[in-house]
Specification:
- The complex is a heterodimer of chains A (about 260) and B (about 290).
- Chain A has two domains: about 180 residues, P-loop containing nucleotide triphosphate hydrolases (Rossmann fold); about 80 residues, no CATH class.
- In chain A, about 35% of the residues lie in helices and about 25% in strands.
- Chain A is globular, with a radius of gyration of 19 Å.
- The longest helix of chain B has about 30 residues.
- In chain B, strand 1 and strand 2 form a beta hairpin.
- In chain B, about 50% of the residues are buried.
- Chain B contains eleven helices and two strands, in the order ααααββααααααα.
- The mean pLDDT of chain B is about 85.
- Helices cover about 70% and strands about 5% of the residues of chain B.
- Classes of the chains: A alpha/beta (about 260), B mainly alpha (about 290).
Chain lengths: ~260, ~290
């Protein structure tokens, strides 16, 4: 394995995966993967279909439980965590096939992202007493901020199921961002978008990273986009890591070229 | 004309009884997008437990408390043993699970307390009361008051708290709900416990009228047209649907019945529901399905 040295010494590590292996019955999805994500960087996971990228995201936010290995997030080592616990610790995510609450409006969807920021009890909320009312206004104004940031104000009262695909992707990003995450996991945020939509989405991701200092781990197939916005690229193939480093180094890596373009044997 | 109003009011009040049954379904549907086939079994289980305790000399409110505790335990058990292993599965899978659950709960209730018919006395006389020249059943008024209180509490809970938003989120997409930090086990346990409370109240009112017996689990069949007319996902819809079913079946029996030799009260609601399915499939207050093609 011709591994490129990862720039982990450069900054503080936020997320560290150590020897993760995951299989479903006899099918190995991920084999012995380790890498580190520095605080404040944009890290891209790339690789052909079925390389184990989405499975890896699911391990990070606790949907899947790896058989071997550990995940260290923000200084806490764990073998397994439940998704809601990951959310509490500051990990938000979007899904490959858009997992929005389709019957709700854009605003309500974004508000669910603030679910964990509420401190008042349900009795206070039902009777609108104590901190409930103030908190309600605060949640709403935070949600509106995110909606404005991602330019989806015209659709705030629109039921999400009626929106076109590209906008739904943006609403899903808004919901994840509303949680004010430390780590944002994006599973193919630009799949199925046209060039202009991809440009917008890339800009939003970079803006989120710069303005809020949010660390981003994203899966993307468009190599142009990946090389343009990432600080760090991890390449997977058949569930194994084949390269890990800054984009310009990864681009020159022979194994990566082989995995993407095929080689003569 | 007085007679018309008497029939109408009697119908509306009996409709409230249907609404009570329907609310139990709406709760579970809101939180999982699933028609809970076991709701009737919950009604039977609650009523049978309560009446058996009272017959063994337990005081009314104590029996109510113990039964409620039993419903809470049942909710915890259902979440742990049935719903949790099936999390993130399709709606049809969960629906089939509730079907099986219905038989288990019905069986357990009768294995515990026996299958005899029990009389239940709530201390409210089922006699007509004269209100403004019209005769109304006192028991029906009591049932209506109970239903109104229940609806008030539930709508406060669902519309003003984050629980309401969490429920809709869970019903729409469990995976996404978990990712925004909603705890599925808690939401499900809470909903099944509240559905258990509603089942207990329904069981007491229906049990007082029909006697506590196996056929209580069949009153849920009357909830079907109520839900189709009102919409599966709205507590308000369950009330409206119940009132429509109650009033229309009684009026139809009196005014249309004689033309076809009577006995139409039992099937009229289903005809009405079928018409609604043709014209407004989501019901009066249900969420309309939105899909892009």
């Amino acid at each position: 394995m011709t591994e490129v040295v990862a720039p982990t010494t450069r900054a503080e590590t936020l997320l560290q995966l150590d020897g993760i292996s995951l299989s479903f019955g006899g099918v190995k999805a991920i084999t012995d993967i380790s890498f580190a994500v520095a605080r404040g960087e944009i890290c891209a996971l790339i690789g052909p279909n079925g390389a184990g990228k989405s499975s890896l995201l699911n391990v990070i936010n606790g949907v899947y439980r790896p058989q071997v290995g550990s995940v260290t997030f923000d200084g806490e080592v764990r073998r397994h965590m439940r998704p809601h616990h990951a959310a509490q610790r500051g990990i938000a995510r979007t899904f490959q096939n858009i997992a929005l609450f389709k019957g709700m409006t854009v605003l309500d969807n974004v508000l669910t992202g603030r679910n964990l920021k509420r401190r008042s009890t349900w009795v206070e909320q039902a009777l609108r007493i104590g901190r409930a009312e103030r908190e309600d206004d605060e949640q709403r104004s935070r949600a509106e901020d995110v909606i404005e940031f991602l330019h989806i104000q015209p659709w705030r009262e629109t039921v999400v199921g009626k929106l076109p695909y590209g906008l739904q992707k943006r609403v899903e990003l808004a919901r994840a961002l509303a949680a004010e995450p430390t780590l944002l996991l994006l599973d193919e945020p630009m799949a199925g978008m046209n060039a202009a939509e991809k440009r917008d989405m890339s800009r939003f991701i970079v803006d989120i990273n710069r303005e809020y200092g949010t660390t981003v781990v994203l899966i993307e197939h468009d190599i142009g986009v990946v090389m343009g916005i990432s600080d760090h690229v991890v390449v997977l193939d058949y569930g194994r890591k084949i390269a890990d480093g800054p984009p310009e180094e990864v681009r020159r890596n022979a194994e990566v070229i082989a995995a993407y373009l095929g080689t003569r044997h | 004309m007085d007679f018309f109003f008497e029939v109408l009011i009697g119908g509306l009040l009996s409709g409230v009884m249907y609404s009570l049954v329907a609310i139990g379904f709406v709760l579970i549907y809101k939180a999982s997008g699933v028609f809970n086939f076991a709701q009737g079994a919950l009604v039977l289980f609650a009523a049978l437990t309560f009446v058996s305790l009272v017959e063994r000399g337990v005081a009314f409110w104590l029996a109510f408390g113990i039964t409620m505790a039993a419903m809470l335990l049942l909710a915890l058990g259902v979440e742990r043993l049935v719903l949790r292993p099936l999390a993130n599965r399709s709606h049809i899978t969960l629906f089939m699970a509730t079907l099986g659950l219905a038989y288990i709960i019905e069986g357990a209730a009768q294995a515990l307390w026996g299958a005899q018919v029990h009389g239940l006395e709530l201390g409210i006389e089922d006699v007509p009361l004269e209100v403004g020249g019209l005769f109304v059943s006192q028991f029906d008024l009591f049932a209506a008051g109970t239903a109104a209180t229940l609806v008030l509490v539930l709508s406060l809970l669902f519309n003003k708290t984050r629980i309401g938003l969490s429920l809709r989120a869970v019903a729409d997409d469990t995976l996404a709900a978990q990712a925004v930090g909603i705890r599925l086990p808690r939401v499900w346990t809470a909903v099944w416990a509240v559905a258990g409370l509603v089942a207990l109240i329904t069981g007491l009112l229906w049990g007082a009228r029909l006697g506590v017996q196996f056929s209580l689990s069949l009153v849920v069949l009357k909830a079907l047209p109520v839900l189709i007319i009102g919409g599966f996902s709205s507590v308000g819809g369950a009330i409206a649907g119940g009132l429509i079913v109650g009033a229309s079946e009684k009026l139809a029996e009196i005014y249309v019945g004689p033309l076809v030799d009577g006995g139409i009260e039992n099937w009229f609601p289903y005809i009405l529901a079928t018409l609604f399915l043709l014209v407004r499939p989501a019901g009066l207050f249900g969420e309309r399905a939105i899909e892009r093609v």
